[in-house]
Amino acid sequence: MIKFIFLNKTVMEEIEIPTEHLHEAIKEKTEEHAGKEGGKSTLYIAVSTALMAVLAAIAGLLAGHHSNEALIEQVKASDQWAWYQAKSIKAAISALNPVKKENAPTPEQVKKDGEAIMDKAKEAEKNSEFHLNKHKTLAAAVTLFQVAIAVSAISILTKKTLLWYTGVVIALAGFGFLIAGIL
């Protein structure tokens, strides 16, 4: 996972989901135990773990999307603030110049334009914060799904269904974060 720090805000890039090796181990164990007692429960564990991996991938994509959107909105806000400062500096220089130009902005015009620019900058900052909060929620969902997948894989390896139930509970918590991140 790569972090970017932009204007004192940490923005994450896409989250890597290392579940491929777990799927292979689960598939091998499922095939190994298919003819033995408990083969059906192993199959249920394998299918539920695959579903957890799909949900983790979806949450990861959404988290990456919101991370990108947060960065874009923060860049927009920075552009607006830079434009506001440029207009203010131009007006201050114009006010100090004894020779008034025709196109020189009046202080009232600068104030009016400045307020509109500030509103746009604040709106972009608000949007950036919104997307960053969504990213954090979805990143938590990805983490919980990854833990659930690992616990479920361990349940197959150790043949302890209690671990699978624990994995399902963790996955449900991850699903709750996923829903919260979507809404």
Describe this structure in words.
- With 183 residues, the protein is mostly helical.
- It has helices spanning 20-33, 39-96, 107-158, 161-182; strands at residues 3-6, 9-12.
- It has a two-stranded antiparallel ribbon with strand order 1-2.
- Strand 1 (3-6) and strand 2 form a beta hairpin.
- The two termini are 25 Å apart.
Short structural summary:
This protein is mostly helical and 183 residues long. The protein is 80% helix and 4% strand.
Distance between the termini: 25 Å
Oligomer: single chain
Cα-atom radius of gyration: 26 Å
What helical percentage do the residues reach? over 70%
Mean pLDDT comes to 82
Low-pLDDT segments, ≥5 res: none
Structural class: mainly alpha
- Number of helical elements: 4
Largest sheet: 2 strands, antiparallel
Element string (H = helix, E = strand): EEHHHH
> Which outline best applies?
rod-shaped
The overall strand count is: 2
User: What fraction of residues sit in β-strands?
Assistant: under 5%
The neighbouring-strand order within the major sheet is: 1-2
Blueprint of the fold:
Elements: E1 3-6, E2 9-12, H1 20-33, H2 39-96, H3 107-158, H4 161-182
Antiparallel strand pairs: 1-2
Give descriptors for this structure.
4 helices; 183 residues; two-stranded antiparallel ribbon; mainly alpha; rod-shaped
